[in-house]
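FW: tagging you since you asked about this chain on Friday. Here's the raw sequence from the shared folder, copied in full. Didn't touch anything.
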Amino acid sequence: MSPLLYLQHCLSTNDEVVFHPNFQSNDPIGMYTFHQTKGRGQYGNSWKTTEHQNVAFTIAIEEAHFKNSGALINFYTAVILRDFIANLTKREVKIKWPNDLIIKNKKIAGILIEKKTNKYIIGIGINVLQKDFIDLPKAGSILTQTGQMVDLHLLAQDLFHCFSHLFNLKIPEDIVSVYNKHLFRKDEISVFEISGIRQNGIIQQVDAEGYLWINLEKDGVRKFFHKEIELLY
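HL: got it, structure written out here
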């Protein structure tokens, strides 16, 4: 049985992967589809996708692969995906905190990491060929942002090989610094919304605990966790 399975359709690859025949294996296993009907994003958000134009991908990795570095898996996953897309498109790709991928100010990929039994379930959605984002003004695809046509099957297969290889390596000690190097709008004046109030600020860094540090025009330097602040762009 192949460690990477293709499904013609499913509700969510993160949910389906636990039914993979080799789910109890120590080796990485994966699943992907081009027709996911109930994809999930971070913190209960939905991941909307157009049928046969984008890739919903999940890879399940044994917790033991990360030893004591499990807390850094979010950073490592985001950096691996960023590098993969940058190498594929030959374009600048940024990481929007906490783990969206941006090309030319448009979100083209997102990550959802869950824990089930002794495995990390890493779900990735990549907008590849979709052109119409009329209801999602902040979204784009590889095609809209680069003009490139990418084969969906090859993308999923290459992504699986990339993650399988890199997840067998030790997470780099400087992974937080690497993440910050590619952080979207770092050191730039941006507009943020906090509890319905807007003000300017400058993103300084993300720390090892996942907090975003911002130097706000009125409040000075503060740190925020997910959903406590919104970057407007």
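FW: Helices lie at 13-16, 73-89, 142-146, 152-166, 175-181.
HL: agreed, and The chain has five helices and twelve strands.
FW: great, closing this out.
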